[in-house]
Specification:
Layout lengths: L55 H19 L13 H10 L3 H11 L3 H14 L2 H13 L4 H14 L5 H11 L8 H19 L8 H17 L3 H13 L3 H5 L13 H7 L3 H4 L1 H13 L5 H13 L4 H12 L4 H15 L7 H11 L13 E8 L5 E10 L9 E10 L2 E13 L1 H9 L4 H4 L1 H11 L11 E8 L2 E9 H9 L1 H9 L1 E19 L5 E20 L6 E23 L3 E24 L4 E7 L7 E14 L6 H9 L6 E3 L8 E10 L4 E10 L4 H12 L5 E2 L4 H17 L7 E9 L5 E11 L13 E13 L3 E11 L5 E10 L10 E11 L16 E12 L14 E10 L2 H9 L5 H8 L13 H10 L4 E9 L3 H18 L3 E6 L10 E9 L4 E6 L3 E5 L19 H8 L3 E6 L3 E3 L4 E4 L7 E6 L6 E7 L6 E7 L2 E7 L5 E5 L2 E3 L7 E4 L6 E8 L2 E6 L4 E5 L4 E6 L6 E2 L24 H7 L27 E2 L12
Antiparallel strand pairs: 1-2, 1-16, 2-3, 3-4, 4-5, 5-6, 7-8, 8-9, 9-10, 10-11, 10-12, 11-18, 12-13, 12-17, 14-15, 15-17, 18-19, 19-20, 20-21, 21-22, 22-23, 23-24, 24-25, 25-27, 26-29, 27-28, 28-29, 30-31, 30-43, 31-32, 32-45, 33-34, 33-44, 34-35, 35-36, 36-37, 37-38, 39-40, 40-41, 41-42, ...
Helix pairs in contact: 1-2, 1-3, 1-4, 2-4, 3-5, 4-6, 5-6, 5-7, 6-8, 7-8, 8-10, 9-10, 12-15, 14-15, 15-17, 16-17, 16-18, 17-18, 25-26, 28-29
Protein name: VWFD domain-containing protein
GO molecular function, one term: lipid transporter activity
Pfam families: Vitellogenin_N, VWD
Length: about 1300
C-alpha cells in the first residue's frame, strides 16, 4: 500500500467527506465494563476489546506452548532477524492478560518445576496489569513461593501496569500489610508499603471511578499513622513514599509541620512530598518552602531540596522573581550554583510544556547574567530537544548536590522524559544518596596504628586539655530511589554496618573464592498502553503502544589464582531484544478491524570471556579476552516496517467482503511504502582483515529512507539541529540529545521508514584471532645505561598486545617517562612495534613517538613576579612510523618512513611582562600590599589570592608558535590531514581577516610544512596559519576561548590547581593579625602569645593538630605540628633564623636536603620537612596534609576527605562561609579574637594570662570581616 503524505502528529488529516466531528461517543458492548461494586477480581478481564474472547480452557492449553515458544525465541541465534519482529513476547503477555485467577493458578502448577518457564511466567505476570494477576501475585508472596527479589519486583510493578484498579483490590491487598511468615526482610516490607500507597493512588486518583470518601479517609489515616509511628530512618522514608504515592493532598498537607521536626536526613523526603500541596493549597505550600530557601543557616541539602521542589511545581513569575532575589544575595556557593544552573537550564528549555515558565524566566535570569557557574559545585542541568517537524521531543536531567561533610556528591539524581505533542511521559527517575563516604574511606584506607602514632596522646591534648567536643561525621550509608510517572517504585537503604557484615559474611567470601554461575531469561518492559476513542465518522478507534522486550544473560565469575598471582575470570553472554509497536486500528461494527501498525525491533548480542591476573611482586597485569565467533558474534540488528492491516475472525463476513469491494488494494497485511523503487540495499562495509584475523560486516537492506551517504548525512543533520537542542554549550549533552532525536526518527517517525540494518564483528574462518592477550609491567627504574640524577623520577610500562591463534600476531609496547624535579624537563617516549608474520606476509613495523619538554626554571620563590628568567616552554615532538627491524624504531626521514616533527615554543606576551613590571593594576598591586599586611614582615611572598592570581597571569605562556613538518606521509595519513583541513576551514571562515595566496610551488607527494602562531587573549584567540599555498590570519576566534583554561602554567602544577578549584583540597592561611579559613572567609584577630589551635582533626580519634603563637622576634610566628603524639616545632630566633625541634630534639635542616621524622626503622614516615630559602614545607604522607611555614604565616593544605570534622581558627571546612566562629565546645563565639582565645592551649608552657571567652548569645556574634574568594598554591611537594 502506497503512502500519499505524512506530517506532524498535531496536524489534522484532511479528507473529503469528513465533515462531522464527535466530541464524545458512547458504545455498548456485549461485555460492558463492570462498576467498582460489580467487579469480580478473580474473573478474566475480557471487556476491554470488542472481539469475542477465547475460552479459559483454550488459554490454559496454550499457555505452556506459548511460554515454551518464547523460551525458544529468546535462545535463537544472535543473527536470526526473525526475532526482531517475532510476536512471541506479545503473544505470551496477551495470553496471560486474558486469564482468570483460576487459570493463572493452573498455569503456575504447570510451570512451577521448570525453572526457566517459571521465571518467564513471573516476569510477565505483573506486566499484564489485570486484577487476577494482582491476586496471583499476592497469593505467591504470602505462600513464600517467590524469592525476595522476585517478590519486590512483582508487587512494585502491579500498580504501575494495573488497568482497572478498584477498592475491592485495595481491600484484598491489605492482607499483605498484615504480615506473614514469608514476609521477613525489611526490603520486601518496604516494597509492599510503597506499592500499596501506589495502588491507593492509581485507584482513588481516577476521575471516572473515584474512591468513596470513607475509603479515602481510611487510607489517609492509615498511611499518616504509619509515618507517625515510624522509628528508624528507613521506616520514616518508606512511610513518606507511601503517603506521597497516595496523591491525597489532605494527607500530604499534614506533613507540613514535620518539615523542621523530623531528622535532618529525612527532611528532603518530606519537602519533596509537598509538591502535591502546591496544586491544592499554594499558600500552605509556599509557607513551608520559601522560609527554608531564605534561611541561610539551613543545611545545603535541605535548601536545595526546597528549590528543586519549587521548580517542579510550576512556579509563578513572582515566585521566580523572589528566587532570583535570593541568588543575588546568596553566600552559599553550592546553593547559588544550583539556582543559577537550574534557572538557566529551564530558561532555555525546548520542552513545549515549560514554554510559559521559560519565557518569564529568561527575562529574570538577565539580573544574574554577571554571576558565573562552577562545574565542580552543586548543579541541576537539563538537556532536551524538540523536533520541529513531527512534534516529538525528550530530554535528560542530571542533578548533583554536594553537602557540608564531603566533596564526594551527596546526591546524584537523574531523570529521562519524552513527549509527543502535549503528552508527556517520564519513564524513569533515579536518585542515589551517599553519606559518610569520606569517613568510610579514611577508616578503610587511611587508618593509623594508634600505638605507633601515639593517638591517645593527641586525643588527651585536644579533648582533655583544650576541652574540644569531638566532631562526629555521619556514618556511611547509601540510599537508592526509583520512580516512574510520578510514583515511587523502589527504595533501598544500606548502612555501613550492613555493608560491612555483607562483605565479611560467609556467603560473600565463598562467592569471591569459588565464583558464581548464573543463566537467566527475562522479559523486560512489555507494557501495553491502549485506549478507545471515537473517530470523525463515529467508529471505535483504538490507539496503542506496546514495548515488549526480552533478554538472556549468562554470567559466570571464577577464581583462577596461580602462584604469586591473583586471578579472576569473567564470562558474559548477553543478548537483548527490544520491540516497539505502535498501532491505530478502527473496529467496524460489521466485525472487521482495519488499521496501521508500525513495528521496530533491535537485537544486541555481546559475548565476552575475560581472564585477569595481577602479580603484586613485579607489578604486572595480564588480560586475556576471547574474540567473538560466527556463532556468537558481537552484533547489532535493527528493522523497521509499517503495515496496513485488515482482519476478521470470520473469513466470509459481510464486512470483509464489503471492504474488499470498496478497497481492492486492501490486503490482510500490506507493507506501507513510498514505492518499490525507493527500497534499496547497500553493503556499507564488508571487510576481512587478515592481519587482525577479524571480520566486520555492516549492511543496510530493504531501506527506503536511510540509504547511501546523502540520506545518512540528512538524517544526522535533522537529528543534530542546534535550533532544536538545548545543551547549554555542553558537547556531551548535545551529542546525547542528538542521538535521542535520531532514535526517535527510527522508532517513532516518519510513518514509513522501512529499513533493516545489520552490524556484525567476529573472527575470520581462515587464520582467525582466537583471543586478545594484553601483558603490561610497570616499574620506576632508570635506564640501565644511565645513572639517575638527584630528584629525577622514572615511570616505565613495558608489555605486549597479542592476537592469539594460528598464526600469532604480536605488538610490543613500551612507554618511558622521565621527569626532573618540578617537571622542568621531561621526556616521554612511546614505541609500538609490530613483529613480522611470515604466514601473513607482514613485515616488522613500528610507530615511535618522542616528546621532549623544557620549561623555564622557576625562581626560588615561585610567587616572585616578574622573574629574571621569563616563563616559557619548548616542546619537540617527533613521530616516526614505517617498516623497521624487530623491536626497533624506524630511522626518521629515511626512504619510505613517514616522519612528522612538531616544534612548539610558548612565551609570555609583552603585555604580561609589562603588567608584572609596572605593578599598578590587579593582581600585582594587591599582592605587593599583602606582602606586609596582616602583621607580616615581608620575608617571603605570601600565598594570598592576589599573589596566586599574579602567578597565574604572569607565568602562563599565551603566545605559541608551532612548526609542523612531515615527510613521506602515507596516502592514508595524507587523507587524514586533508579531512582535518576540510573540517576546520568552514569553522574558522567567519573569523578570517586576511588571506594572502602564494605562488604555487612544486610539491613533493607526502611532504608539507605548516607554521602556526597562536595568541591567546582573555576572551578570544588570534591565529596565523602559514602553508606553502597561503598565509591566513584569523582574529577574535571566540569559539576557542575555552582553550585558555587548559594552558599550562610554568610554575603551578595543573593537577593541583584543578584540585583546589574543584574543592578537593582546602587551603587555610594564618597570619599574626588575619586568617583566611578553609572556606575562604577572611577574619581579623590578634594571635595570642600562647600556642593557639590553628587546625586539627577533631574527630573522636584525632590524627593531627597545628598550633601557632605570636613571638617577640623579627619573625612574628612560631608553629607546632602534631602528627598523633609526634611533634615538629618551628621557633624563630633573634637572628631571623628558625630552630626546628622534632619530638623535642633540635635538628638541623639544610636547603634541598629533607628531614624525615619516622620510626626507628624508617618504615613509617610521620612527616617530611623541606627547606627552600626562608620557607619550610612539611608533608604528612599518611594524611596527604601539606604545610608551608615562613615565620610570617603558616599555610595548611588538606584534602577534602577530612572535611567537616576539623576545628580551630581555620574552621571546619564544611563549605559554608557563615559558620566559622565555632569554639571548642561547639558553641558560637562573638568574634575572631574570642575564637582565637577560646583555642589557646593553657598548659604549663603558657605564661600569659589570657581570659577564657564566653559563648555569644544567639544572633549577637560578629560576622567575619569579609568573604574573600581565596585560592592559592605553592609547591605541594618540594622533595
Amino acid at each position: 500500500m502506497e503512502l500519499k503524505s505524512s506530517g506532524p502528529i498535531t496536524k489534522p488529516i484532511p479528507a473529503s467527506g469528513l465533515t462531522k466531528h464527535h466530541a464524545s461517543l458512547r458504545y455498548t458492548f456485549k461485555r460492558p465494563i463492570p462498576t467498582a461494586d460489580e467487579i469480580n477480581l478473580s474473573r478474566e478481564e475480557d471487556y476491554l476489546h470488542p472481539e469475542e474472547p477465547q475460552s479459559q480452557q483454550t488459554l490454559r492449553i496454550k499457555a505452556v506452548p506459548v511460554l515454551t515458544k518464547l523460551k525458544e525465541v529468546i535462545g535463537w541465534s544472535p543473527l536470526n532477524e526473525e526475532a526482531l519482529t517475532d510476536p512471541a513476547t506479545s503473544n505470551a503477555i496477551q495470553l496471560i492478560t486474558a486469564m482468570s485467577l483460576e487459570s493463572l493458578q493452573a498455569v503456575w502448577k504447570s510451570v512451577e518445576k521448570d525453572e526457566e518457564l517459571k521465571n518467564l511466567f513471573t516476569e510477565i505476570l505483573p506486566l499484564t496489569g489485570t486484577n487476577p494477576a494482582a491476586l496471583m501475585v499476592k497469593e505467591l508472596v504470602l505462600s513464600g513461593k517467590l524469592s525476595d527479589v522476585e517478590a519486590q519486583r512483582m508487587v512494585a510493578f502491579i500498580p504501575y501496569y494495573l488497568r482497572l484498579p478498584s477498592e475491592k483490590l485495595l481491600a484484598s491487598w491489605e492482607d499483605l500489610l498484615k504480615g506473614s511468615s514469608s514476609i521477613k526482610t525489611k526490603e520486601l516490607k518496604s516494597a509492599i508499603a510503597i506499592a500499596f500507597g501506589h495502588l491507593v493512588g492509581v485507584t482513588c486518583d481516577s476521575k471516572l471511578r473515584p474512591c468513596k470518601n470513607d475509603t479515602i479517609n481510611k487510607y489517609s489515616r492509615m498511611v499518616y499513622d504509619a509515618f507517625k509511628s515510624a522509628k528508624t530512618h528507613h521506616e520514616m522514608v518508606v512511610s513518606i513514599m507511601a503517603l506521597r504515592n497516595t496523591n491525597f493532598p489532605s494527607a500530604i498537607e499534614r506533613l507540613v509541620p514535620y518539615v523542621k521536626t523530623v531528622p535532618q536526613a529525612v527532611r528532603p523526603y518530606v519537602i519533596f512530598a509537598l509538591q502535591f500541596v502546591a496544586v491544592s493549597n499554594r499558600d500552605k505550600f509556599l509557607s513551608a518552602i520559601m522560609p527554608i530557601i531564605h534561611n541561610t543557616t539551613e543545611a545545603t541539602e535541605i535548601r536545595m531540596a526546597a528549590i528543586s521542589t519549587l521548580f517542579r511545581s510550576k512556579p509563578t513569575t513572582l515566585e521566580l522573581q523572589e528566587l532570583i532575589g535570593v541568588a543575588l544575595n546568596e553566600n552559599n556557593q553550592e546553593v547559588l550554583n544550583f539556582i543559577l544552573t537550574t534557572g538557566r537550564n529551564y530558561a532555555d528549555t525546548k520542552n513545549p510544556c515549560l514554554q510559559s515558565t521559560s519565557s518569564d524566566l529568561q527575562l529574570l535570569m538577565r539580573r544574574v547574567d554577571h554571576l558565573k557557574t562552577d562545574f565542580f559545585r552543586s548543579s541541576n542541568r537539563v538537556f532536551d530537544f524538540q523536533d520541529g517537524k513531527y512534534g516529538f521531543g525528550g530530554g535528560v536531567q542530571l542533578a548533583t548536590v554536594y553537602g557540608e561533610e564531603s566533596r564526594a556528591p551527596l546526591i546524584i539524581s537523574a531523570r529521562a522524559n519524552y513527549h509527543i505533542s502535549k503528552y508527556r511521559h517520564i519513564p524513569l527517575e533515579m536518585m542515589l544518596r551517599f553519606e559518610g563516604v569520606d569517613d568510610a574511606y579514611l577508616r578503610l584506607f587511611r587508618k593509623l596504628d594508634p600505638k605507633d602514632y601515639k593517638l591517645d596522646t593527641l586525643k588527651d591534648l585536644l579533648q582533655k586539655t583544650l576541652k574540644i567536643a569531638p566532631r562526629q561525621k555521619s556514618q556511611f550509608k547509601v540510599e537508592i530511589v526509583l520512580r516512574s510517572q510520578g510514583y515511587d517504585l523502589m527504595y533501598h537503604h544500606i548502612g555501613g554496618d550492613e555493608l560491612g557484615a555483607l562483605m565479611e559474611g560467609k556467603a560473600m567470601k565463598e562467592l569471591l573464592s569459588r565464583g558464581v554461575k548464573l543463566t537467566r531469561s527475562m522479559v523486560m518492559l512489555g507494557g501495553n498502553q491502549f485506549s478507545w476513542r471515537p473517530n470523525d465518522i463515529g467508529l471505535a478507534l483504538g490507539v496503542g503502544l506496546s514495548t515488549p522486550a526480552f533478554a538472556r544473560h549468562q554470567l559466570s565469575y571464577g577464581n583462577v589464582n596461580q602462584a604469586n598471582k591473583i586471578g579472576r575470570s569473567i564470562q558474559i553472554d548477553l543478548g537483548m531484544n527490544f520491540q516497539v509497536t505502535s498501532y491505530l486500528a478502527v473496529y467496524n461494527p460489521l466485525g472487521v478491524s482495519q488499521g496501521i501498525v508500525k513495528m521496530r525491533g533491535s537485537r544486541f548480542h555481546w559475548p565476552d570471556n575475560v581472564q585477569v591476573s595481577f602479580s603484586p611482586a613485579d607489578t604486572q597485569i595480564e588480560i586475556k579476552m576471547s574474540t567473538p565467533t560466527e556463532e556468537k558474534p558481537l552484533s547489532l540488528l535493527f528493522t523497521s516496517k509499517t503495515s496496513a492491516v485488515v482482519s476478521s475472525r470470520d473469513a466470509d463476513s459481510k464486512g470483509l467482503s464489503y471492504l474488499k469491494d470498496s478497497c481492492p488494494e486492501c490486503e490482510p497485511n500490506a507493507l506501507v511504502t513510498r514505492g518499490e523503487k525507493f527500497r534499496k540495499g547497500l553493503v556499507v562495509r564488508e571487510s576481512i582483515n587478515s592481519r587482525l584475523g577479524l571480520e566486520s560486516h555492516v549492511e543496510v537492506s530493504d531501506c527506503e529512507t536511510y540509504t547511501g551517504k546523502a540520506s545518512i548525512a540528512k538524517l544526522v543533520y535533522e537529528s543534530f539541529k542546534p535550533s532544536e537542542i538545548n545543551s547549554h554549550g555542553s558537547a556531551p549533552g548535545f551529542l546525547v540529545m542528538g542521538l535521542m532525536q535520531m532514535r526517535n526518527y527510527f522508532y517513532h517517525y516518519p510513518p514509513t521508514g522501512t529499513c533493516s540494518m545489520k552490524t556484525v564483528l567476529h573472527r575470520t574462518r581462515i587464520n582467525p584471532a582466537d583471543a586478545i592477550e594484553i601483558r603490561l609491567k610497570a616499574d620506576s627504574n632508570p635506564p640501565p645505561w644511565r645513572r639517575a640524577p638527584p630528584g629525577m623520577t622514572y615511570n616505565n610500562v613495558k608489555g605486549s598486545v597479542t592476537l592469539l591463534g594460528t598464526p600469532e600476531r604480536k605488538w610490543n609496547v613500551e612507554v618511558n617517562v622521565e621527569k626532573e624535579p618540578f617537571n622542568i624537563r621531561s621526556s616521554v617516549t612511546v614505541k609500538i612495534a609490530r613483529l613480522a608474520n611470515p604466514t601473513l606476509g607482514v613485515p616488522s613495523r613500528a610507530l615511535c613517538v618522542n616528546v621532549k619538554t623544557i620549561w623555564s626554571a622557576p625562581p626560588q620563590d615561585i610567587f616572585e613576579t616578574p622573574s629574571i628568567v621569563q616563563p616559557s616552554v619548548h616542546r619537540d615532538v617527533t613521530m616516526v612510523w614505517g617498516d623497521a627491524p624487530a623491536n626497533e624504531c624506524p630511522k626518521a626521514n629515511a626512504k619510505g618512513i613517514s616522519t612528522m616533527t612538531v616544534k612548539v615554543v610558548g612565551n609570555i606576551t609583552e603585555s604580561q611582562q609589562e603588567a608584572a613590571t609596572i605593578r599598578n593594576s590587579y593582581p600585582y598591586d594587591r599582592c605587593d600590599l599583602d606582602r606586609n599586611d596582616a602583621g607580616r614582615t615581608g620575608i617571603a611572598g605570601p600565598m594570598t589570592r592576589a599573589c596566586y592570581d599574579a602567578v597565574l597571569h604572569y607565568a602562563t605562556p599565551r603566545s605559541y608558535k608551532f612548526d609542523i613538518k612531515y615527510e613521506n606521509m602515507s596516502p592514508g595519513g595524507q587523507t587524514a590531514l586533508d579531512r582535518i583541513n576540510t573540517l576546520l576551514r568552514p569553522v574558522l571562515l567567519p573569523y578570517l581577516s586576511t588571506n594572502s595566496p602564494l605562488t604555487p610551488t612544486k610539491n613533493v607527494a607526502g611532504t608539507g610544512h605548516i607554521e602556526l602562531k597562536v595568541d591567546v587573549g582573555e576572551d578570544d584567540i588570534n591565529l596565523l596559519v602559514k602553508t606553502d599555498q597561503a598565509h591566513s590570519q584569523y582574529e577574535n576566534i571566540d569559539l576557542l576561548k575555552s582553550t585558555r583554561v587548559k594552558l599550562r602554567n610554568a610554575r603551578l602544577d595543573m593537577s593541583h590547581l584543578t584540585a583546589i578549584e574543584a574543592g578537593w583540597v582546602g587551603v587555610c592561611d594564618v597570619a599574626p593579625k588575619a586568617v583566611v579559613t578553609f572556606d575562604k572567609t577572611n577574619m581579623n584577630y590578634d594571635l595570642p602569645k600562647c600556642y593557639t589551635l590553628i587546625s586539627a582533626d577533631c574527630s573522636p580519634t584525632p590524627r593531627y593538630a597545628i598550633f601557632a603563637r605570636k613571638t617577640n622576634t623579627s619573625l612574628p610566628m612560631a608553629a607546632r605540628v602534631h602528627v598523633g603524639g609526634h611533634t615538629l616545632e618551628f621557633n624563630p630566633m633573634t637572628d631571623s633564623s628558625v630552630e626546628l625541634k622534632a619530638n623535642d630534639k633540635i635538628v638541623k635542616i639544610e636547603t634541598n636536603k629533607p628531614f624525615v621524622l619516622s620510626d626507628k626503622d624508617n618504615i613509617t614516615q610521620y612527616a617530611i620537612v623541606n627547606r627552600i630559602g626562608a620557607r619550610y614545607f612539611v608533608q604528612i604522607p599518611v594524611l596527604k596534609l601539606s604545610l608551608r611555614y615562613t615565620g610570617d604565616d603558616i599555610v595548611t593544605m588538606i584534602p577534602s576527605i577530612h572535611r567537616s570534622q576539623l576545628c580551630g581558627l581555620c574552621g571546619d571546612y564544611n563549605g559554608q562561609f557563615s559558620n566559622e566562629l565555632v569554639g571548642p565546645s561547639g558553641c558560637i563565639m562573638r568574634n575572631a579574637t574570642d575564637l582565637a582565645q577560646s583555642y589557646v592551649l593553657r598548659d604549663k608552657s603558657c605564661k600569659e594570662t589570657i581570659p577564657t571567652p564566653v559563648c555569644a548569645e544567639p544572633g549577637s556574634e560578629k560576622k567575619s570581616s569579609g568573604i574573600l574568594s581565596y585560592l592559592y598554591l605553592d609547591r605541594l611537594i618540594r622533595s
